[in-house]
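Structural prep section.
Before we set up the soaks we want a predicted structure of the protein with '5'-O-(N-(L-prolyl)-sulfamoyl)adenosine in place, mainly to decide which crystallisation condition to try first. Input record follows.
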Amino acid sequence: MRLSRYFLPVLKENPAEAQIVSHRYMLRAGMIKQQAAGIYSWLPLGLRVLRRIEQIVHEEQVRAGHIPLLMPTLQPADLWRESGRYDDYGQEMLRIKDRHERDMLYGPTNEEMITDIFRSHVSSYKDLPLTLYHIQWKFRDELRPRFGVMRGREFLMKDGYNFDVDRDSALHAYNRHMVSYLRTYERMGLTAIPMRAASGPIGGDNTHEFLVLANTGESEVFYDDRVTGLKLGARAVDYDDRAQVEGICGEFTTLYARTDETHDPALFETVPEAHRKVGRGIEVGQIFYFGTKYSDAMGATVVTRDGSRVPVEMGSHGIGVSRLLGAIIEASHDDKGIIWPEGVTPFPVGIVNLKQGDGAADAACAALEKALLARGLEPLYDDRDERAGAKFATMDLIGLPWRITVGPRGLANGVVELTSRRTGASEELSPEAAVERIAAIYAEHP
Ligand code: P5A
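Run finished without errors. Recording the tokens verbatim:
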């Protein structure tokens, strides 16, 4: 992509309404535009990151054996009357009437609708286990929408729902989600700690939230700081292996880590003092096991192996897809701008032409662009007729992890400069070697 033809409306000034760094940088980098409180347009650069995050979420869900579908944003109120939540949900639910005066709502979550799909089509244990998920916009009329996409009213969520014949199988689904989420967040360059939580309006008593530590987080967290060193890494996971998956969950949930809702001061005291930490965190996901709460209320039953009919066991599992952009920026930035982890960056590399209009520099940039594209790596080429300083400032603000700088002086010696946004370290190398290096870096971040 050539910057001269792109739509990247960067702001020079700090927007007054943004209280936290991620919101400020998302506005300044031309990623989002607010259209109403808690409701945003996703401008091209923001959309590219959102799509990367969605892609990683999809890949890890499919790897865990979960199946995508797509449910609508608008739902009939009658489904929610069946579960009793139409009245319970209160003012957070946006209620709408259609032209026939039928009560509708903009879905804040989809437990009822997925249970309705299930009961219409599945009636035997032979079709289980089954986990269906989608990535879809939600609406919650939050009392205090704030911090940009972090607490929006309209926001993008991955929500998945498991259906199992018995409790053991449903707990395996719960564990499978925990492990797939750990991998998902790691691929985005995040450390997200599973913490025992409270279930709120979703229900059930077995639930974990995933928290990214950040001073600007909305939740107070209490933890043994050794949890921050745990990594799933590249280990092979067999999602059908109940013992292995349960073992990994044990590894990540044994050390003390809780939100203020479930904090147990006496138990916390047993953590060695040097490891006892209190901080703040951003909730980027939550998983729930709630058994038969919805299947009982809505009559979703299956025939078991012995011929009896039982309500299906369920859980639901969510990732805050749009919130993740804010969380990643909170975790990865400096005073010049965003620093995208390779896994989610909108473009893998930027090309800065120090002397637009110089024949050799223009040709070298075009050749680099072509060579990178041939490797499936689309660069953002700053081909504007601007000062070098302005080009660097834009690149630093939008946070591409790598930059190739091309100028007549280097080219005379056969070199370009490759710079890491994270460390600021630069090295000179031939254009071909720079392409190889970028390709090698991204081979580790499919
Ligand atoms: C699980 C999936 C649920 O709704 N039902 C379906 C369950 N869980 S949840 O914890 O309420 O939401 C899941 C994740 O969505 C993100 N989230 C938000 N993101 C941006 N703005 C909001 N207002 C908002 N509310 C929830 C969080 O990351 C949460 O973990």
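Observations: The chain has two domains: 3-338, 349-443.
Flagged for discussion at group meeting.
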